[in-house]
Amino acid sequence: MLRTYAIRDSRVVETPGGPIMVYVAPDEAERRFLVDSCKLDEHNLASALDPDELARLEFEPDHAAIIYKRPRNYSGQDGVQFKVISGGIFLFKERIVIVQAEDIALFEGKQFNRVSTLSEVMLKLVYRSIFHFLEHLKIINSISVELEHKINQAMENRYLINLFGLEKSLVYYVSSINSNDLLLEKIKYNSAKFAFTPEETEYLDDTIIENKQCGRQAEIYSNILASMMDARASIVSNNISVLVKTLNIITIGIMVPTLIVSVFSMNVRLPVAHESPLSFWLVMGLSAVSLVAFMFFWWRKKW
């Protein structure tokens, strides 16, 4: 699917035949057009749609190919799995081609309130991915805190499994953010080839700083989650031990009066077996006394 945009009044607006071409999950015909007519390298085009590809910068004879990482749109079907995908920005002198695997709103947010050049569009798309990472990190932290409270009160493994899923997501996030950091450093190193304006160079420096801060935040969340996994597993194990202890006490408490009743139910001659009409209540009384004595004993033990 193809959408075209243009820069009007310092904003990116959708317009037919604009110099900003956005391809969403291109089909085979669109891929052939990009390779044959736009002269995109097939490997770079495939990398833009490959979620496992690392961020990188390559220079072709007539354009620059930027592969960057960004979070995938969260879906309830993913549970607590947060995934990353790749995106491709192919910057020509008079146009820019953007290739992505899923349909997302690219040009929303305050980052695109003032845009003047195609190279600035490229920089702000990378910055937008950083902002998207930060939003997901806040959500991950909120889910992690909620799961911690549930683990402290429950014994189900699914909460631990959810935490493992968050930990795995953070590992991928840290790797992707670091990959974007290397991309930004390479863009800065080759800034002369992009002919950035002083304002764009300053914006690039700000983007590098924001990405480093995002990476540190992701690493902190990842380290905290990883270091606390053993403690949370111990909490679940301790909760199970407490439950087993309680069940054993209840079982023993039931067995004591049952033993007394069983003794008086044996088919042998026992005291007060026939002589007293209160034999039944005597046996029930002994059972109740034994149960009370047992509960008092464990109460003194502070069970």
Structural account:
- The protein has 303 residues and is of the alpha+beta class.
- It folds into two domains: 238 residues, Beta Polymerase, domain 2 (2-Layer Sandwich); 61 residues, no CATH class.
- It has seven helices and seven strands.
- It has a seven-stranded mixed β-sheet with strand order 2-1-3-7-6-5-4, sandwiched between helices.
- Strand 6 and strand 7 form a beta hairpin.
- It is rod-shaped.
- The mean pLDDT is 81.
What's the domain count?
2
Kindly provide the radius of gyration, computed on alpha-carbon positions and rounded to a whole number of angstroms.
34 Å
Biggest β-sheet, characterized? 7 strands, mixed
Q: Are there runs of 5+ residues with pLDDT below 50, and where?
A: none
DSSP, total strands: 7
Structure classification: alpha+beta
Largest sheet, spatial ordering of strands: 2-1-3-7-6-5-4
**Helix share, percent:** 55-70%
The N- and C-terminal alpha carbons lie at a distance of: 67 Å
* Count of helical regions: 7
* CATH architecture field of the largest domain: 2-Layer Sandwich
CATH topology category name of the largest domain: Beta Polymerase, domain 2
How much is the average pLDDT?
A: 81
CATH class descriptor of the largest domain: Alpha Beta
* Strand fraction: 5-15%
Shape: rod-shaped
- Write the H/E string, N to C: EEEHHEEEEHHHHH
Provide the CATH superfamily of the largest domain.
CorA soluble domain-like
